[in-house]
């Protein structure tokens, strides 16, 4: 059975969900406010993101993006490709593929969706995020939208699984707020924290549950 088949099968079992996500949540939120992150507001907006899997030099990768500086809450943060659900999207999956095509330049028809991760609510921006996992049969040629993407960060799946690359530090946001004791992934010299880190945490637990999977 191929790795993609194994991941697809695992994604169709009971997901780790909250227990995996909170491992990369701020300590104070984990202790005091974590239920707020799993109880979306009734007026929450919906967004969809895509965790892409592809091979490069016989190793497995995914791709993140750094958002450009903007007035928005997530200015210059690292994220998965994705964005807001639009009225013309025929499904959540279609929205995730559309956003990935718009931001990364990867044709939607080349993305094979193999499953979903657990939804995650982001109170600071009032978005309920629906994460999908997609597979590309060939190494992508990125054509980023420079209005939405400052840079693309290719990440080895092995690095996601490397516990020594999970760290904690104080982070100052673009808005000037100092957040203390933030868990993050140190990936390609980038600090990947917040909702993206929480979703990646769940994905790594799914990979850890694969039979015989130790190297990617």
Based on the model shown, name its key terms.
216 residues; alpha+beta; Nucleoside Triphosphate Pyrophosphohydrolase; 3-stranded antiparallel beta sheet; 24% helix
Brief description of this entry?
With 216 residues, the protein is of the alpha+beta class. It has helices at 3-11, 18-21, 27-32, 92-104, 157-161, 194-208, and strands at 45-56, 59-66, 78-79, 82-84, 112-116, 120-122, 127-135, 151-156, 166-172, 178-187, 190-192. Strands 1, 2, 3, 4, 5, 6, 7 and 8 form an 8-stranded mixed sheet that branches.
Describe the structure in your own words.
The longest helix has 15 residues, at 194-208. This protein has 216 residues and is α+β, with helices and mostly antiparallel strands. The protein has helices at residues 3-11, 18-21, 27-32, 92-104, 157-161, 194-208, and strands spanning 45-56, 59-66, 78-79, 82-84, 112-116, 120-122, 127-135, 151-156, 166-172, 178-187, 190-192. The model has no long low-confidence stretch (mean pLDDT 90). The chain has a single domain (3-205), classed as Alpha-Beta Complex (Nucleoside Triphosphate Pyrophosphohydrolase). The two termini are 14 Å apart. It contains six helices and eleven strands. Helices cover 24% and strands 31% of the residues. The strands form two sheets. Strands 1, 2, 3, 4, 5, 6, 7 and 8 form an eight-stranded mixed beta sheet that branches.
